[in-house]
Amino acid sequence: MPGSPPAGLVDLVGTPKPTGAGGGAVGDPPTSGSRPSGGGWKRRVIALVFVLGLVCLLPAISLIQALSAPGNLSASELSVEWMRDHNMGSLVNTVERWWFTNHQVKEGGEPDRAIAIDAPPESAGSSGSGSKNESSHVSTTPKPADVAVPDGLSPLPDEGVWQPVGPTVDGASTMYATQVRPDAVHSSVLDGLVWLDPKLLRFVLHPGLQVPGGTFATPPKVPMDERLALVAAFNSGFRLEDGHGGVYLEGKTVSPLRVGAASFVIDTNGVATVGEWGRDVSMGPNVVSVRQNLDLIVDGGKPVAGLDDNVDGKWGATYGNKVLVWRSAVCVDANGGIIYGYGNGLGALSLAELMTRAGCQRAMELDINTVWMTFNFYGAAVPGDPNSVVGTKLLPDQRKPGTRYLADDARDFYAVFNRNP
To answer: Is residue 286 part of a domain?
Structure first.
């Protein structure tokens, strides 16, 4: 009934007993004299303090356990993850929105650095010799046209120009990278793009310790015996509960797959593609992994409708195109090539526009915020020595280091390997 104490607390806190003649409680032994009876309320206060302490202690223990979890997350990152796991996601989103709103990238200006694509040594996975794409004897995928700069801007040196990077196979480049400004307003920002040839590279989804969690044969890092063939790695999508989609890996459905969800699918040959689940891609005997995240942001070579206002939350807590943050995406182009893009100063719509300018036919948003997104190139400083493999960030202002994914990671990610090491 209204006003009744919660069940289970009645005996701890205590309830008044009915009194008899002379003020004694019914059933109590007779008393003599006028001895003060203050012990009852003291016991009740002590019991109440004990209950409140217990209520506070249990979450504290849970938080301490979360902060001691294995992996490479900082204490602040682990704390936020714990809050999201304990029904405080809306509070986190509110604080993030406030922070992003009050720390927006500036308008106008010029980038504070020149466009340069820094790659690690080419020794990892390279085979053959010769200049890029000259006398190649391997089957390659045509790379897309150079990326157009936003209307109203004059191109910077090398802006939007695909530059070969990483290992070569019989003289053919396995990857090309470039940098470009997101729009004409935020002209001091440089975002990064990488094109990856699926005929020369193979993709592997690695599960993270916490996302998706569970037990897998595939480790949450790139193991030592595979590092000489490793050429790149990049982040996956949102936490599963925030991504409105599922995961399929190692022959089991880790989280239910949603029809209509944007999906990154890898087959038994390590070939990857992006599509809408149930329309462009679906389950079959050749599917090795599926990672879903929200709905497509690019379809048919153009941004989908509704990104600007995010009606019905189809793209999660992306803040529409009003709050600009670090965002990432992956797509497939008209020739089957895979393109990854990320950087600062991006809303849901401008991210889709960036990927469209890069040549995407179908694109899905991956993770957002600097903490979670990473694109690293990898190469061995000493040929044949996996211990000497080093990583280089695509964008120098990326927060996570070039060594990410060489140690156990909390989040799932994609490793990219040379098919012909």
So the answer is: yes
- Which long-range CB contacts under 8 A does 254-259 form with residues at least 24 apart? 254/207, 254/212, 254/214, 255/212, 257/283, 257/290, 257/292, 258/292
C-alpha 328/C-alpha 394 separation (Å) is 12
413 domain-assigned: yes
Residue 343's closest CA among 321, 356, 324?
324
Q: Which two tokens stand for residue 213?
A: 């969690």
- In 3D space, the residue among 160, 157, 182 whose CA is nearest the CA of residue 106 turns out to be 182
Planar angle of CA 318, 290, 208, nearest 5 degrees = 75
Total tally of structural domains belonging to the chain = 1
Residues in the chain: 421
Residue 84 lies in a domain: no
Whole-model pTM: value is: 0.79
Q: Which residue has the tokens 């029809």?
A: 259
Is residue 251 situated within a structural domain?
yes
Domain containing 274: what range? 112-418
Spatial contact of 273 and 265, defined as CB atoms under 8 Å apart: yes
Q: What is the pLDDT along the chain (421 residues), one digit of tens a residue?
A: 444 333 333 333 344 444 444 444 444 444 444 444 556 777 776 766 666 665 565 555 654 654 556 666 666 655 555 566 556 656 655 666 665 565 678 899 999 999 998 877 664 445 544 334 444 567 899 999 999 999 999 999 999 999 999 888 888 999 999 999 999 999 999 999 999 999 999 999 999 999 998 999 999 999 999 999 999 999 999 999 889 999 999 999 999 999 999 999 999 999 999 999 999 999 999 999 999 999 999 999 999 998 887 666 676 655 545 678 899 999 999 999 999 999 999 988 999 999 999 999 999 999 998 888 999 999 998 999 999 999 999 999 999 999 999 999 999 999 999 998 6
Strand order in the sheet with 172-180: 163-169, 172-180, 191-196, 338-346, 325-333, 360-368, 296-299, 302-303
